[in-house]
Predict the structure.
Amino acid sequence: MKITATVLETTDRDGDYRKTAPLRIVEIDLAPPGPDELLLKIEAAGLCHSDLSVINGDRPRPLPMALGHEAVGTVLEAGRVAAQSFEIGDRVVLSFLPQCGECERCISGEPYLCSRGAASNGAGTLLSGAVRLSEDGHPVHHHLGASAFASHAVVDRRSAVRIPADIPAEIAALFGCAVLTGVGAVLNTGKLVAGESVAIYGLGGVGLAALMGAIAGGAQPVVAIDPLLEKRELALELGAVAAFDTTASHDEISRALGGRPDLVVETVGRAAVLGQAFTLARIGGRIVTVGLPREADTLDFSPLALVAEGKSLIGSYMGSSVPARDIPRYIKLWRAGRLPVERLLSSVTPLGEINTLFARLHEGTAIRQIVKA
Ligand SMILES: [Zn+2]
Ligand SMILES: [Zn+2]
């Protein structure tokens, strides 16, 4: 069938995306779903730094690729196997790593590190290895098993988590990436204990979701660090006791916390910031890193503190999440008013504005921008 999708042909390092318009919105072909796959009508999709990292080349991916991975859709058709767990009309949130359920990581209880899912994401295919998108007979790769800046998508059933019918699409979409990653970094990877103090570096969608997760999980007190005043003000409204720009010293931050933080979450994706996060944590503290740095970045600090101060530096992919377990939990917290995900929304616009929206994301002035095809 013919669908509308958003295709990246070549990377664009630091262009003004309003002018260079690296993304083309085009009609391309979508093949029917395989046995394990679902055909979805996409309701809404959010712009994420992982999309930007493909556009600017920080995360090299096979091109052309149809972008977009943080999304919610409705099942229009289910393949033979997928039909055993999904019905036509089901609403699903997409997680950005399909979890095969059979590889060593999956059966060891670490499905967020699924090796088959990572391989298919890297190759730009669905979990089955298939590519269902094409333009004039030439394959167009899938982004993170989703390719959701589109009217429709075919996804593996293991990329989809069923959600209730009544959640507004622009909010539901956010559960698939920003919320899963940010809240999971604090609760799953960071193993927050109620009453612990937390510092969050970076207040993009993931950083703000981490802040909400910390508050919902009983952290006390919580502070945030970000260069943009508007984002710091939002952090204070969400329950942070203080918010600092990037010039704040460790002593200033610690004074607001009543001591060095138990848990520090770094969401910026720059090695220098991770270094600061590491030194800020208390003796025996945990430092969770979620931001995706460039491949060439290297960390520069004395590893002595790892041993002598008993600190733990922990990487967090997808918030160490089990999407089918965690998305329903986070939806319950949202319903109870304890995870105000709607505060992440910067805008909801038609797909046609996507290059301008990526310019804003690149400039850091937007949090979560939602598009609808
Ligand atoms: Zn994302
Ligand atoms: Zn697996």
Summary: The chain is about 30% helix and 25% strand.
